[in-house]
Amino acid sequence: MRDQILTFIEKNSRINLKELAVMLGSDEVTVANEISEMEQEQVICGYHTMIDWDKTGAEKVTALIEVRVTPQRGQGFDSIAERIYNYPEVKSVYLISGGYDLMVILEGKTLREVSSFVSDKLSTLDTVLSTATHFILKKYKDHGTIFAKKNKDERMLVTP
């Protein structure tokens, strides 16, 4: 039942408990207890709202930064990852496979602000060997939500 609960609330964390219980063939109290237990165990780490910032007029730039680092003896990548994720601009840090070691996702108000963060803070860390910055220009789909929905052509077909 836990996996089913997680699948449903990952798509819609605001789902009504009564509705969720019906979909799972259970009762509301059992579902609420399971969710509470998973929150305490930190299986559920938080709840987030998906926002299309392009529609708000807010200045926001998101960048994906590939980072190559020298792992530290006895700590591997954990120590440098912690240093990086403690910056408030950093939204996510992942250990990845391939030519780079870490993927850092960060947000700023402008391209210059993000570039400045990379050159002044990230690249200057003693274990960072190199970085590659990729700016997100347009979101098509994020966390399963499609942003760039096609408008249906509502014109009538005219034939001679």
Summarize the structure in words.
By secondary structure, this protein is of the alpha+beta class. The chain has 2 domains: 2-40; 53-139, Alpha-Beta Plaits. It contains 5 helices and 6 strands, in the order H-H-H-E-H-E-E-H-E-E-E. The chain has helices at 2-11, 17-24, 28-40, 78-85, 111-122; strands spanning 61-69, 90-95, 102-108, 128-135, 141-142, 145-146. It has a 4-stranded antiparallel sheet with strand order 2-3-1-4. A two-stranded antiparallel ribbon has the order 5-6. A hairpin with a 6-residue loop joins strand 2 (90-95) and strand 3. The longest helix is centred in the first third of the chain and has 13 residues, at 28-40. The protein is flat, with a radius of gyration of 21 Å. The mean pLDDT is 90.
Secondary structure layout:
Layout: H1 2-11, H2 17-24, H3 28-40, E1 61-69, H4 78-85, E2 90-95, E3 102-108, H5 111-122, E4 128-135, E5 141-142, E6 145-146
Antiparallel strand pairs: 1-3, 1-4, 2-3, 5-6
Helix pairs in contact: 2-3
